[in-house]
């Protein structure tokens, strides 16, 4: 039979730390946390309260979770990060990487010092979290250029469309396609065509603001979403980009087949039923730019 002493030693041996926390955020008891790869010794926390240790905003989040677990009586699972910025008394210098935890929080059916209490088991999931972030980045990124891919663009455009409908935030969309890439490939080889595509990606990056999204839409076709951008600004941006492509890509030209770009531009309009309507209009403008002889910007509205 397992007796009380044995039970206490089992609790102490737990690899993940288990806290008993009161409704007011007091550390009533701390067990385990013996896996020193991931955890500091938490025994010194007993008797302190969360608000003594953690800055107000984060402390309020912890108290909110305790309240929620007590109200529902169900197991609550929450992921959260803690960095030295969140802990009182530490300087903002030092490692900036936060530690990510999965907290599993369960109301207990007894009180301590007339207060309701929960069991809070914290597991260090930093490695898993980093892997998830990296996977998300990879699934949103075009391999050759490092620009975003179509999936991420569509997500962003969907958000911009909501902002346009609800708050009338103007958004512009540029779709462009390289001129004569086939001749570049045929004359110099596919790897030079790749260099041209990568040069375009670098130029996009250098022209964009933080919230703009540039994506490789297909082979030599790209789309840029410009939130908070109206007709006039979008036209100027497109002309500037087109000009800078012409200057920087001229070294790829094959005789009369110039290494230039054709650009279609539009903005979200009240008649658009979704961002797809905006995208279709940009595509039609791009088609017109090609039809009219390439190497130009066409605005559709
Ligand atoms: N090097 C390279 N070429 C690509 C890549 N993706 C697509 N292409 C080529 O780009 C060309 C795209 O077709 P088009 O747009 O009709 O070719 P284009 O010569 O640019 O024709 P215009 O757009 O009419 O000027 C095809 O020849 C594809 O093989 C890529 O990743 N690398």
Automatic annotation (TrEMBL):
One of its GO terms (molecular function) is diguanylate cyclase activity. Pfam families: GGDEF (PF00990). GO terms for biological process: cell adhesion involved in single-species biofilm formation; negative regulation of bacterial-type flagellum-dependent cell motility. It catalyses: 2 GTP = 3',3'-c-di-GMP + 2 diphosphate. InterPro entries: Diguanylate_Cyclase, GGDEF_dom, Nucleotide_cyclase, PAS-like_dom_sf, Rev_trsase/Diguanyl_cyclase. Gene3D superfamilies: 3.30.70.270, PAS domain (3.30.450.20). One of its GO terms (cellular component) is plasma membrane. Residues 169-301 form the GGDEF domain. Its EC number is 2.7.7.65. Its cofactor is Mg(2+). It is an enzyme of class 2 (transferase). It is found in: Cell inner membrane. This is diguanylate cyclase. The lineage of its organism: Bacteria, Pseudomonadati, Pseudomonadota, Gammaproteobacteria, Pseudomonadales.
